[in-house]
Amino acid sequence: MHDLRFYENVRDLTVGELAEFVSGRLDGNSSGLIVTIGPPETAERGALCFLDQSLPDGIELSSSATACLVTEKLIDQVPEGVSKIVVERPRLAFADATKYFLSRRSLTDDCDDLGQSNIHEAAIVAPGAIISAGVEIGEGSVVSHGAVIGPGVRVGRNCQIGPGVVLEAALVGNDVRIKANSVIGGDGFGLMPGTNGLRPVPHFGRVIIQDNVGLGSCVTVDRGALSDTVIGEGSQIDNHVHIGHNVQIGRHCVIAAFGGLSGSVVVEDGVQMGGRVGIADHVRIGARARLAADAAIMRDIPAGETWGGSPARPLRQWMKETAWLAKSVKARSKTLDSDNG
């Protein structure tokens, strides 16, 4: 279910009306009401999902979903009881459908239905900060000059929100520190081919920042697409780090400056990353793993191991290969010098 603090339904929509809107062939109940969206494996009653490729082994499409946009080839993977809307390009049809019945609350919207902001009397909001409708700011928190807090955002107790910080579609815990000019909750970098070039993938998730998290300056954390982006309790993130949509970071992780985590990366508890580490999408980093500076992570890292290099490999192997390469280059140079002498 999308969070009504950050998104709103702009019209009622039945399955039959949706099938007509996307020019799809309906197989199932046309009267079901579509009120939200969800991932195929966890979609709830009233939710629309899509399926444009086979699900991984052991994962099934939720039988609670009300409707699924699906190709003819994959229609048998949709459970009985879920209305099937057969289209050629489910992902594109899903983007069109969500735009038709859902709307993101923007910084310029009135959002009167959210009510006035609720700022604790012991919180401090500096002049020049922008506080949108429905915002809650807890006791002892400080919002600095030029910060922008979007509709419905929650900021817990004793937080420090630095100058120029932008918070949208975010739930922030207690004792969180976000330094200057960080942007939290913007759309992720998701693109898909459309009829007239590339189109952005719609994002209807949130950013969840748990207690005692520290974010440096110029950090960007993208909201989730269909699920949430989560930063776990006590994790510390240095300046100029990018965290993509749907990323899950565990508790007490450390990420040094200029790191980049692609979409849907999972970082388990206690992981440490040196500067400029890059992680490809959908990779899992096991608990307490350590990643050397400049490592390029292209596949899962087992728990407790230390990896480095580009592409990354176990640290001992990387160091041996680096030493062998340096030794080989030196020997080759001596041979060339001898031949030229």
Structural write-up:
The protein has about 350 residues and is an alpha/beta fold. It has 2 domains: about 5-105, MurE/MurF, N-terminal domain (Udp-n-acetylmuramoylalanyl-d-glutamate--2,6- Diaminopimelate Ligase, Chain: A, domain 1, 3-Layer(aba) Sandwich); about 110-315, 3 Solenoid (UDP N-Acetylglucosamine Acyltransferase, domain 1). Helices cover about 15% and strands about 30% of the residues. The protein is built from 3 helices and 40 strands. The strands form 7 sheets. The protein has an 11-stranded mixed sheet. The protein has a 9-stranded parallel sheet with strand order 10-13-16-19-24-27-30-33-36, with no helix packed on it. The chain starts with 6 loop residues before the first strand and ends with a helix. The mean pLDDT is about 95.
